[in-house]
# Entry
Amino acid sequence: MSFLISKTTFQHFLHCPKDAWLKLHRPDLKEQFSFSEFELHLMEQGNEVESLARDLFPGGIEVSTRGEHAVEDTLRLMASKTPAIFQATFIHDGYIVRNDMLAYNTDTGLWDLYEVKGTNSMKLDQKERDHITDIAFQVSVMRRAGVPLGKAHLIHLNKEYVRQGDLVLSELFAIEEVTEAVEGRIPELEPKMEAAKEYLLRETEPAGNCDCLYATRRNHCSTFAYSNAEVPEYSVHDISRIHKTKLTNLIEQRIYALEDVDPEAHKLSEKQTNQVHAQQRKFPVIETEEIRSFLDSLVFPLHFFDYEAYAPAIPAFSGYGPYKFIPFQFSMHILDAPGGELRHVEFLHEEFSDPSDAVARKLQEIYTGGSVMVWHETFEKTIINVNIAKRLPQHAAFFERFNAAMVDLEKIFTSQHYIHHGFKGRTSIKKILPVLGEGFSYEQLAISEGGQASNEWWRMVGPTITPEEKQQIAENLKTYCGLDTEAMYVIYKHLTDVV
Ligand code: SF4
# Structure
């Protein structure tokens, strides 16, 4: 089988050779490579950004064919000095390049290269290095293919941009010339490109465990289980904040299951020891005093509260910048007094417009005082409320009061006041609820996670939706968000029962 190495495959190889090989050669393992809703959303956003950035190049023509046909079409468009070519394609020596934009520079008679990224910064971090690598890969291949290249540019979103009325593309996008950085990268890159070709084109599957056997869970990709079949789903890689040296030690002794760990011998911290013991004894570790003091600090009426929000790369409404969240929904369960009846209030914005004012007004109608319980407070407090207050200063005083009353229920679990083997070392509400709330689960829901909820809302307020579909999505969203806040109540109730 022969493959052409694209810039995406090459980046993938740089991140992890084995994963890149498996994705190229083992499409039968597709199930294990499936993208999350969040990753799909990012890809979609990337396509939208690229398509809008094309408007910066009037007279541009897209190469819509593939493979050798695309190369022929590209050469034809270059011969007629087309002002800009989208998806210009070149194949050389086992590599394939498809440019976002290749623009003819009438002053120099050369072709300038533009790479569009849906990110909103040029900071000198890993991402920026990746962008330069992407462009350097293209320049290296195109130069060898004989393309008369001029300057290289990166087009990214301007994070300072705030939409006011119509989109202003010249302000939304920042264009940086990166020729020098790209030239500096090429010498170190070309040997790696050769190595990638050699590794990725081999027919035999790389044998044995992969490198992440020695890395904690958050570093693992979707093929970890395939490459490390002897490691259980919940393993030493999940031990909270485990140091690399301790993890290496355990792996070198081939200790994978928590059941086989001796916390003392491996000098685990108290919290790590508790986590291991909870798994070994299949019995929860509960710090009742800490939980009691948390519960005692709550002020009735209690509000169990959650937002759903959508963050488009291209700001949809005035007052928003790239990737700023649109709060389209909230759910609130209210407990007026200990042992009282639980009330439910909800809000869902069903039109294509900014919901901020309606959200603020509805909340002020409902909320008069008392604790506001959330799960992972940064999102509700900072990402949503602070930004609504900035957009609508007339509501700033309310959100200050609302935020001051906020209490993060997740902290009970992140602080390990309650450890249960069923949580498998995680603290997301989706992991905690099925363990502490018998009969409650997200599994059967049509919408079962936040990324899916925001994509569905965007579809619901889009132009092509039918009334029936709209109604169905609205119902699904209400069920999902309602379960999030009911879940918090169920967990709160469980904690009160325990102490
Ligand atoms: S789990 Fe890590 S080392 Fe293993 S294939 Fe994935 S990224 Fe590579």
